Amino acid sequence: MSGKPLASDTAMILAAGLGKRMRPLTASQPKPLVRVGGKALIDHALEKLENAGVAKAVVNVHYLADALEGHMKVRKTGPAVTISDEREVLLETGGGMVKAAPMLPDPFFCLNSDNIWLDGPSDVFAELSQAWDPERMDALLLLVPHPRALNYRGEGDFHLDPAGKVSRRGKGRVAPFIYTGIQIVSHRLLRDAPEGPFSTNVLWSRAIEEGRLYGISHTGLWFEVGDPGAIKPTEAWLPRA
């Protein structure tokens, strides 16, 4: 890879969800504070951002927001954190980005707070930055092929054409790539967005129609940590990093 700089100095971490699949661990704590490998899930994400040189993070909060916000305040290292408060209403992934947009540069990284991954030859934020082209793209998704998606038992999410354009898995079919929860987002993707809660899928569908949703394949490993049963298998890999 060349020395192309990071596409953004800021990431949004989506941390407002209810974490229903992680019950009973989320009965008394938000999912981003569930510990894997000795640290909270959100700390894995923040450390990856810090190591990549991403200086700032916007974290949205809703479920047990006080606990998550308190955790952010006591952190001594890592990106400078700003809170996007969704206590009144959970806005889902798309609505959460729209609410936080005034705090975010154009473009910005966006990642789920429950992500754990091992980088390949380059960190994922450098990989995304290398491929980012704002003239052609509204968003650039980090995708992972099934063999490198550990704990994942689904049918995949997307296809990639030779140019890197993304299309969805057809109904009843299997797709070769899974969305990792990590992307670069242009403010153009957020234009004319619905009001209130909605999924990012609404915006992605428009970008697919316009030929402006792209993806790259992750060169390392990615772990789905969606339920308590995924924690121990994931922890078994972490010391190998």
TrEMBL record:
Keywords: Nucleotidyltransferase, Transferase. InterPro entries: GlmU-like, NTP_transferase_dom, Nucleotide-diphossugar_trans. Coiled coil: none annotated. Residues 11-130 form the Nucleotidyl transferase domain. One of its GO terms (molecular function) is nucleotidyltransferase activity. The keyword Transferase applies. Pfam families: NTP_transferase. This is Nucleotidyl transferase domain-containing protein. It comes from Novosphingobium pentaromativorans US6-1. The lineage of its organism: Bacteria, Pseudomonadati, Pseudomonadota, Alphaproteobacteria, Sphingomonadales.
